[in-house]
Amino acid sequence: MMKKQDLLEKRQHIEQFRQSSSLSPLHAQQIQQSILKSWQRSQIAEIPVDRLAAPLNYSLTHTHGGSALQRAVQNCAEDLRHIAQQSDMVAAVGDVGSTIIWTAASAQMRNVAEQVHFVEGGQWREELVGTNALALSLKTQQASCVFSSEHFMSSLHDWVCYAAPILDPYSKQVLGVIDLSTTWKNHNSLGMLAAERCASLIQNALLDQQKQQLYIRAFRVPQVLFNGKVVVMTPRQIEILVILALCPQGMSLDTLHQALYGERKVSMGTLKAEMSQLRDILGGMLGSRPYRILAHIEADFLQAEQALDAGYVQSALQTCAGVFLAKTESPFLCAWRDCLESRLSDAIFNAQDTDVLLKHLARSPEAIDAVERLIELMPKGHPAHQILSKYTA
């Protein structure tokens, strides 16, 4: 732990930096680049100066009740709660949009956390509350520390927060973030390691529960994992699973045949044979009358849809890396893909964050909608403006 005098000087220096109209090169070297960029984004967001607590939205936390992340957190909740209480901290887990879905706090930190809405339902997106560790860790996809007045909101200047992203053990997709927070006087250089350790606890819980579920990837190279292992399947069998994942209420044989084949002349017997093979592969985890998947399902396309529903554009764009089932001829799946792509385009044309769009363009160079939106957002004198204009020429 750092000496109190060193911590006080660190806090005073940061406050001086924040109050100055511009940072000198020397000052800029003493502040992390990620913090400086976050301050700039926070200024652009025009956050109300009188905002002292995060906005609350309990409805978002309710939608996560059955999510893989929520179940994993519940499975290791006692360990996380013990860490928070023993270290006199508040521990919080946020989803991919920085909305808190679970917390545990020591007696000292509980009331402080409630005052700033560092509780379930608290929305800690950067554009809403400015620089904070949850949002910064999700933005950089690395462990982050935000100390004292590095926080944008003045109500957090007595805090120090350490956060680390929570990754899906298989896809490495960011599912959320874990944050450990305490008072600035208790700042410890090992805080980020502690946050990373908590993230590992949750990721191990995710790994355990993925051994008892079906995971479907439909972007880029389609793949199915069952009970934690890759299962060899034909493209048709994967299409059937994706349709059933999108229709959890189940489907009759006729409806499934229409969704899969449309007007193509394929016999019912062929589909029945496919279903029989699938039931063998899934060890009986395929119900009939109606046809439905009996195992718990996680899928990248479902995660993308949920992210769009919650307004988490960055997460949706990261998840949609590539084309959804690019070779499918299923009328149902083609229609669903068209709908998803339309929603993504709408989200892109409403996006305000150039960093998010640039990262999306790096992953998907053919994304002309992202290019057009970047041209709108960037000033004409910006060096990238001319380069981007060539995309649409």
From TrEMBL:
GO biological process: regulation of DNA-templated transcription
Domain of life: Bacteria
Parts forming coiled coils: none
GO molecular function, one term: DNA binding
Protein name: OmpR/PhoB-type domain-containing protein
